[in-house]
Automatic annotation (TrEMBL), chains A, B:
PROSITE patterns: HTH_TETR_2. InterPro entries: Homeodomain-like_sf, HTH-type_TetR-like_transc_reg, HTH_TetR, Tet_transcr_reg_TetR-rel_C_sf, TetR_C. One of its GO terms (molecular function) is transcription cis-regulatory region binding. It comes from Streptomyces katrae. It comes from the Bacteria. Keywords: DNA-binding, Transcription, Transcription regulation. The lineage of its organism: Bacteria, Bacillati, Actinomycetota, Actinomycetes, Kitasatosporales. This is TetR family transcriptional regulator. Transmembrane segments: none annotated. The keyword Transcription applies. Residues 38-57 bind DNA. Pfam families: TetR_C_11 (PF16859), TetR_N (PF00440). Residues 15-75 form the HTH tetR-type domain.
Protein backbone atom coordinates (compact mmCIF):
# COMPACT_ATOMS: atom_id res chain seq x y z
CA UNK A 1 0.00 0.00 0.00
CA UNK A 2 1.46 3.38 -0.89
CA UNK A 3 1.29 6.67 0.98
CA UNK A 4 -1.75 7.88 -0.92
CA UNK A 5 -3.81 4.79 -0.19
CA UNK A 6 -2.88 4.95 3.46
CA UNK A 7 -3.80 8.63 3.61
CA UNK A 8 -7.30 7.69 2.41
CA UNK A 9 -7.84 5.27 5.28
CA UNK A 10 -6.54 7.00 8.39
CA UNK A 11 -6.78 4.96 11.56
CA UNK A 12 -7.40 1.65 9.76
CA UNK A 13 -5.71 -1.55 10.85
CA UNK A 14 -3.24 -1.24 7.96
CA UNK A 15 -2.20 2.21 9.10
CA UNK A 16 -1.63 0.99 12.66
CA UNK A 17 0.48 -1.95 11.44
CA UNK A 18 2.51 0.37 9.22
CA UNK A 19 3.13 2.77 12.10
CA UNK A 20 4.19 -0.09 14.43
CA UNK A 21 6.52 -1.56 11.81
CA UNK A 22 8.10 1.83 11.01
CA UNK A 23 8.62 2.41 14.73
CA UNK A 24 10.22 -1.04 15.14
CA UNK A 25 12.57 -0.43 12.19
CA UNK A 26 13.50 3.02 13.53
CA UNK A 27 14.34 1.53 16.94
CA UNK A 28 16.35 -1.34 15.44
CA UNK A 29 18.24 1.11 13.22
CA UNK A 30 19.16 3.28 16.19
CA UNK A 31 20.19 0.25 18.26
CA UNK A 32 22.09 -1.73 15.60
CA UNK A 33 22.44 0.41 12.47
CA UNK A 34 20.78 -0.06 9.11
CA UNK A 35 20.81 -3.60 7.81
CA UNK A 36 21.86 -5.41 10.98
CA UNK A 37 18.50 -7.06 11.64
CA UNK A 38 16.03 -9.43 9.98
CA UNK A 39 12.37 -9.26 9.00
CA UNK A 40 11.66 -11.66 11.89
CA UNK A 41 13.22 -9.24 14.39
CA UNK A 42 11.23 -6.31 12.99
CA UNK A 43 8.03 -8.38 13.18
CA UNK A 44 8.69 -9.48 16.78
CA UNK A 45 9.41 -5.92 17.87
CA UNK A 46 6.32 -4.57 16.09
CA UNK A 47 4.11 -7.36 17.44
CA UNK A 48 2.99 -8.48 13.97
CA UNK A 49 3.49 -11.69 11.97
CA UNK A 50 6.46 -12.00 9.60
CA UNK A 51 3.92 -12.72 6.86
CA UNK A 52 2.27 -9.31 7.38
CA UNK A 53 5.59 -7.62 6.58
CA UNK A 54 6.29 -9.78 3.53
CA UNK A 55 2.71 -9.31 2.28
CA UNK A 56 2.80 -5.56 2.48
CA UNK A 57 6.44 -4.71 1.69
CA UNK A 58 7.60 -7.80 -0.15
CA UNK A 59 11.12 -7.65 1.31
CA UNK A 60 13.25 -6.09 4.02
CA UNK A 61 14.90 -3.90 1.34
CA UNK A 62 11.59 -2.32 0.30
CA UNK A 63 10.65 -1.70 3.93
CA UNK A 64 14.06 -0.14 4.73
CA UNK A 65 13.84 2.13 1.71
CA UNK A 66 10.32 3.29 2.76
CA UNK A 67 11.54 4.01 6.30
CA UNK A 68 14.61 5.84 4.94
CA UNK A 69 12.40 8.02 2.72
CA UNK A 70 10.05 8.83 5.60
CA UNK A 71 13.07 9.70 7.74
CA UNK A 72 14.60 11.94 5.05
CA UNK A 73 11.29 13.69 4.43
CA UNK A 74 10.89 14.37 8.16
CA UNK A 75 14.45 15.29 9.10
CA UNK A 76 15.58 16.90 5.82
CA UNK A 77 12.51 18.33 4.04
CA UNK A 78 13.35 20.33 0.91
CA UNK A 79 13.90 23.95 2.00
CA UNK A 80 11.87 26.85 0.61
CA UNK A 81 13.77 29.95 1.69
CA UNK A 82 12.75 32.16 -1.23
CA UNK A 83 16.17 32.23 -2.95
CA UNK A 84 18.09 29.58 -4.91
CA UNK A 85 21.22 30.33 -2.94
CA UNK A 86 19.40 30.00 0.40
CA UNK A 87 17.67 26.78 -0.69
CA UNK A 88 20.89 25.14 -1.91
CA UNK A 89 22.89 26.17 1.15
CA UNK A 90 20.20 24.94 3.52
CA UNK A 91 19.75 21.69 1.59
CA UNK A 92 23.50 20.98 1.41
CA UNK A 93 23.89 21.69 5.14
CA UNK A 94 20.95 19.36 5.93
CA UNK A 95 22.41 16.54 3.85
CA UNK A 96 25.84 17.09 5.43
CA UNK A 97 24.28 16.93 8.90
CA UNK A 98 22.30 13.81 7.97
CA UNK A 99 25.23 11.86 6.51
CA UNK A 100 27.75 12.84 9.17
CA UNK A 101 25.29 12.11 12.01
CA UNK A 102 25.40 8.87 13.99
CA UNK A 103 23.34 6.97 11.36
CA UNK A 104 24.73 8.83 8.33
CA UNK A 105 27.30 6.37 7.00
CA UNK A 106 24.74 3.60 7.68
CA UNK A 107 22.14 5.38 5.50
CA UNK A 108 24.68 5.66 2.66
CA UNK A 109 25.71 2.04 3.11
CA UNK A 110 22.02 1.10 2.93
CA UNK A 111 21.57 3.00 -0.34
CA UNK A 112 24.60 1.19 -1.76
CA UNK A 113 23.62 -2.19 -0.32
CA UNK A 114 20.16 -1.84 -1.88
CA UNK A 115 21.67 -1.10 -5.30
CA UNK A 116 23.76 -4.24 -5.19
CA UNK A 117 21.28 -6.65 -3.59
CA UNK A 118 19.34 -8.01 -6.55
CA UNK A 119 16.44 -6.69 -8.55
CA UNK A 120 14.12 -6.00 -5.60
CA UNK A 121 16.78 -4.03 -3.74
CA UNK A 122 17.74 -2.16 -6.91
CA UNK A 123 14.13 -1.11 -7.45
CA UNK A 124 13.72 -0.07 -3.82
CA UNK A 125 16.88 2.05 -3.98
CA UNK A 126 15.84 3.49 -7.32
CA UNK A 127 12.39 4.49 -6.08
CA UNK A 128 13.93 6.16 -2.99
CA UNK A 129 16.34 8.17 -5.15
CA UNK A 130 13.65 8.98 -7.75
CA UNK A 131 11.37 10.46 -5.09
CA UNK A 132 14.11 12.60 -3.51
CA UNK A 133 15.28 13.72 -6.98
CA UNK A 134 11.69 14.72 -7.84
CA UNK A 135 11.49 16.80 -4.64
CA UNK A 136 14.88 18.40 -5.32
CA UNK A 137 13.87 19.26 -8.90
CA UNK A 138 10.71 20.86 -7.47
CA UNK A 139 12.87 23.14 -5.30
CA UNK A 140 15.06 24.06 -8.31
CA UNK A 141 11.98 24.67 -10.50
CA UNK A 142 10.57 27.13 -7.98
CA UNK A 143 13.82 29.13 -8.29
CA UNK A 144 13.59 29.05 -12.10
CA UNK A 145 9.96 30.24 -11.91
CA UNK A 146 11.14 33.21 -9.81
CA UNK A 147 13.51 34.13 -12.64
CA UNK A 148 16.63 32.65 -11.02
CA UNK A 149 19.01 30.34 -12.97
CA UNK A 150 17.52 26.97 -13.98
CA UNK A 151 19.44 24.06 -12.49
CA UNK A 152 19.05 20.35 -12.99
CA UNK A 153 18.68 17.99 -9.99
CA UNK A 154 21.33 15.71 -11.50
CA UNK A 155 23.88 18.55 -11.50
CA UNK A 156 23.19 18.99 -7.78
CA UNK A 157 23.58 15.22 -7.31
CA UNK A 158 26.88 15.14 -9.22
CA UNK A 159 28.55 18.28 -7.88
CA UNK A 160 27.13 18.87 -4.39
CA UNK A 161 25.84 15.53 -3.08
CA UNK A 162 28.31 13.08 -4.71
CA UNK A 163 31.46 14.82 -3.36
CA UNK A 164 29.94 14.89 0.14
CA UNK A 165 28.85 11.23 -0.08
CA UNK A 166 32.28 10.08 -1.28
CA UNK A 167 34.12 12.02 1.40
CA UNK A 168 31.92 10.52 4.11
CA UNK A 169 32.22 7.01 2.63
CA UNK A 170 36.02 7.43 2.53
CA UNK A 171 36.02 8.65 6.13
CA UNK A 172 37.01 12.29 5.44
CA UNK A 173 35.61 15.17 7.47
CA UNK A 174 33.02 17.56 5.99
CA UNK A 175 33.52 21.15 7.15
CA UNK A 176 30.81 23.83 6.71
CA UNK A 177 33.32 25.79 4.56
CA UNK A 178 33.77 22.81 2.27
CA UNK A 179 29.99 22.29 1.92
CA UNK A 180 29.39 26.02 1.23
CA UNK A 181 32.25 25.92 -1.30
CA UNK A 182 30.47 23.18 -3.28
CA UNK A 183 27.33 25.36 -3.42
CA UNK A 184 29.30 28.50 -4.37
CA UNK A 185 30.97 26.63 -7.19
CA UNK A 186 27.61 25.52 -8.56
CA UNK A 187 26.08 29.01 -8.30
CA UNK B 1 66.77 -5.45 7.14
CA UNK B 2 63.05 -4.82 7.66
CA UNK B 3 60.08 -6.36 5.82
CA UNK B 4 59.89 -3.57 3.28
CA UNK B 5 63.56 -3.79 2.39
CA UNK B 6 63.31 -7.53 2.06
CA UNK B 7 60.26 -7.22 -0.22
CA UNK B 8 62.21 -4.91 -2.51
CA UNK B 9 65.02 -7.43 -3.07
CA UNK B 10 64.02 -8.99 -6.37
CA UNK B 11 64.34 -12.74 -6.50
CA UNK B 12 64.59 -13.09 -2.72
CA UNK B 13 62.32 -15.46 -0.85
CA UNK B 14 60.23 -12.49 0.32
CA UNK B 15 59.68 -11.32 -3.24
CA UNK B 16 58.56 -14.79 -4.29
CA UNK B 17 56.11 -15.02 -1.38
CA UNK B 18 54.73 -11.55 -2.21
CA UNK B 19 54.23 -12.53 -5.86
CA UNK B 20 52.48 -15.79 -4.90
CA UNK B 21 50.22 -14.03 -2.41
CA UNK B 22 49.31 -11.24 -4.89
CA UNK B 23 48.53 -13.89 -7.49
CA UNK B 24 46.32 -15.82 -5.03
CA UNK B 25 44.43 -12.66 -4.08
CA UNK B 26 43.95 -11.73 -7.74
CA UNK B 27 42.54 -15.18 -8.49
CA UNK B 28 40.23 -15.14 -5.45
CA UNK B 29 39.02 -11.66 -6.38
CA UNK B 30 38.17 -12.75 -9.90
CA UNK B 31 36.45 -15.91 -8.64
CA UNK B 32 34.52 -14.46 -5.69
CA UNK B 33 34.83 -10.70 -5.71
CA UNK B 34 36.75 -8.46 -3.30
CA UNK B 35 36.26 -9.29 0.33
CA UNK B 36 34.60 -12.70 -0.04
CA UNK B 37 37.54 -14.73 1.23
CA UNK B 38 39.73 -15.08 4.31
CA UNK B 39 43.47 -14.83 5.03
CA UNK B 40 43.45 -18.63 5.44
CA UNK B 41 42.10 -19.10 1.91
CA UNK B 42 44.67 -16.72 0.46
CA UNK B 43 47.46 -18.56 2.32
CA UNK B 44 46.25 -21.99 1.16
CA UNK B 45 46.04 -20.83 -2.46
CA UNK B 46 49.48 -19.18 -2.31
CA UNK B 47 51.05 -22.20 -0.58
CA UNK B 48 52.30 -20.16 2.38
CA UNK B 49 51.47 -20.16 6.10
CA UNK B 50 48.74 -17.83 7.42
CA UNK B 51 51.36 -16.43 9.76
CA UNK B 52 53.52 -15.30 6.81
CA UNK B 53 50.64 -13.15 5.59
CA UNK B 54 49.89 -11.69 9.02
CA UNK B 55 53.60 -11.03 9.62
CA UNK B 56 54.12 -9.13 6.40
CA UNK B 57 50.77 -7.38 5.84
CA UNK B 58 49.29 -7.35 9.33
CA UNK B 59 45.72 -7.84 8.10
CA UNK B 60 43.62 -8.86 5.12
CA UNK B 61 42.63 -5.20 4.67
CA UNK B 62 46.24 -4.07 4.25
CA UNK B 63 46.92 -6.88 1.77
CA UNK B 64 43.77 -6.09 -0.24
CA UNK B 65 44.66 -2.43 -0.41
CA UNK B 66 48.18 -3.28 -1.64
CA UNK B 67 46.78 -5.57 -4.34
CA UNK B 68 44.20 -2.92 -5.33
CA UNK B 69 46.96 -0.31 -5.68
CA UNK B 70 49.12 -2.65 -7.77
CA UNK B 71 46.10 -3.40 -9.96
CA UNK B 72 45.23 0.30 -10.41
CA UNK B 73 48.84 1.19 -11.23
CA UNK B 74 49.01 -1.58 -13.84
CA UNK B 75 45.58 -1.22 -15.44
CA UNK B 76 45.05 2.53 -15.01
CA UNK B 77 48.47 4.24 -14.89
CA UNK B 78 48.30 8.03 -14.86
CA UNK B 79 48.27 9.22 -18.48
CA UNK B 80 50.89 11.58 -19.91
CA UNK B 81 49.44 12.70 -23.25
CA UNK B 82 51.10 16.13 -23.34
CA UNK B 83 47.94 18.17 -22.72
CA UNK B 84 45.77 18.67 -19.62
CA UNK B 85 42.65 18.00 -21.63
CA UNK B 86 44.05 14.76 -23.07
CA UNK B 87 45.31 13.61 -19.66
CA UNK B 88 41.99 14.29 -17.91
CA UNK B 89 39.90 12.67 -20.66
CA UNK B 90 42.12 9.58 -20.72
CA UNK B 91 42.19 9.33 -16.94
CA UNK B 92 38.39 9.75 -16.59
CA UNK B 93 37.78 7.12 -19.31
CA UNK B 94 40.19 4.70 -17.59
CA UNK B 95 38.48 5.12 -14.23
CA UNK B 96 35.06 4.70 -15.87
CA UNK B 97 36.23 1.49 -17.55
CA UNK B 98 37.74 0.23 -14.29
CA UNK B 99 34.66 0.87 -12.11
CA UNK B 100 32.11 -0.36 -14.66
CA UNK B 101 34.14 -3.51 -15.42
CA UNK B 102 33.30 -6.88 -13.87
CA UNK B 103 35.23 -6.09 -10.65
CA UNK B 104 34.46 -2.37 -10.63
CA UNK B 105 31.66 -2.14 -8.07
CA UNK B 106 33.61 -4.64 -5.94
CA UNK B 107 36.67 -2.34 -5.96
CA UNK B 108 34.51 0.58 -4.82
CA UNK B 109 32.84 -1.55 -2.17
CA UNK B 110 36.31 -2.55 -0.97
CA UNK B 111 37.39 1.10 -0.67
CA UNK B 112 34.25 1.80 1.34
CA UNK B 113 34.48 -1.38 3.41
CA UNK B 114 38.10 -0.51 4.31
CA UNK B 115 37.06 2.96 5.46
CA UNK B 116 34.45 1.53 7.82
CA UNK B 117 36.34 -1.51 9.14
CA UNK B 118 38.26 -0.15 12.08
CA UNK B 119 41.53 1.69 12.38
CA UNK B 120 43.67 -0.74 10.36
CA UNK B 121 41.19 -0.76 7.45
CA UNK B 122 40.86 3.03 7.61
CA UNK B 123 44.65 3.42 7.39
CA UNK B 124 44.90 0.93 4.50
CA UNK B 125 42.15 2.75 2.57
CA UNK B 126 43.72 6.12 3.37
CA UNK B 127 47.16 5.05 2.15
CA UNK B 128 45.66 3.66 -1.09
CA UNK B 129 43.83 6.94 -1.76
CA UNK B 130 46.83 9.05 -0.71
CA UNK B 131 49.09 7.27 -3.21
CA UNK B 132 46.62 7.62 -6.11
CA UNK B 133 45.99 11.28 -5.17
CA UNK B 134 49.75 11.90 -5.19
CA UNK B 135 50.02 10.38 -8.67
CA UNK B 136 47.03 12.39 -9.92
CA UNK B 137 48.50 15.62 -8.52
CA UNK B 138 51.74 14.78 -10.37
CA UNK B 139 49.81 14.61 -13.65
CA UNK B 140 48.10 17.95 -12.90
CA UNK B 141 51.42 19.55 -11.89
CA UNK B 142 53.00 18.57 -15.21
CA UNK B 143 50.19 20.48 -16.96
CA UNK B 144 50.73 23.52 -14.72
CA UNK B 145 54.48 23.38 -15.48
CA UNK B 146 53.65 23.49 -19.22
CA UNK B 147 51.73 26.71 -18.59
CA UNK B 148 48.28 25.12 -18.57
CA UNK B 149 45.74 25.88 -15.80
CA UNK B 150 46.71 24.61 -12.33
CA UNK B 151 44.18 22.13 -10.95
CA UNK B 152 43.97 20.45 -7.58
CA UNK B 153 43.66 16.66 -7.29
CA UNK B 154 40.82 17.12 -4.80
CA UNK B 155 38.80 19.08 -7.38
CA UNK B 156 39.21 16.14 -9.76
CA UNK B 157 38.14 13.78 -6.96
CA UNK B 158 35.07 15.88 -6.12
CA UNK B 159 33.84 16.76 -9.61
CA UNK B 160 35.01 13.97 -11.93
CA UNK B 161 35.60 10.86 -9.80
CA UNK B 162 32.90 11.29 -7.11
CA UNK B 163 29.98 11.66 -9.58
CA UNK B 164 31.17 8.55 -11.47
CA UNK B 165 31.62 6.57 -8.24
CA UNK B 166 28.17 7.52 -6.93
CA UNK B 167 26.46 6.68 -10.22
CA UNK B 168 28.12 3.26 -10.29
CA UNK B 169 27.34 2.63 -6.61
CA UNK B 170 23.70 3.59 -7.24
CA UNK B 171 23.56 1.28 -10.26
CA UNK B 172 23.29 3.99 -12.95
CA UNK B 173 24.98 3.66 -16.34
CA UNK B 174 28.07 5.74 -17.24
CA UNK B 175 28.08 6.85 -20.88
CA UNK B 176 31.24 8.20 -22.58
CA UNK B 177 29.31 11.46 -23.23
CA UNK B 178 28.57 11.78 -19.52
CA UNK B 179 32.22 11.15 -18.57
CA UNK B 180 33.51 13.64 -21.17
CA UNK B 181 30.91 16.13 -19.93
CA UNK B 182 32.38 15.98 -16.42
CA UNK B 183 35.84 16.73 -17.84
CA UNK B 184 34.54 19.57 -20.06
CA UNK B 185 32.83 21.14 -17.09
CA UNK B 186 36.07 21.09 -15.10
CA UNK B 187 38.14 22.52 -17.97
Amino acid sequence: MNEKERARRPGGRSARVAAQVHQAVTELISERGYGNFTVGEVAARAGVADSSIYRRWGSLETLLSEVALTRLNTQSPMPDTGTLSGDLRTYAAQVAREITGPDGPAVLHLAIALSSSGERGRQAGESLRAERTRQLQGMLDRARDRGEPALDAFDVLDHILAPMYIRVLFGTELTPEYVDGLVDRML
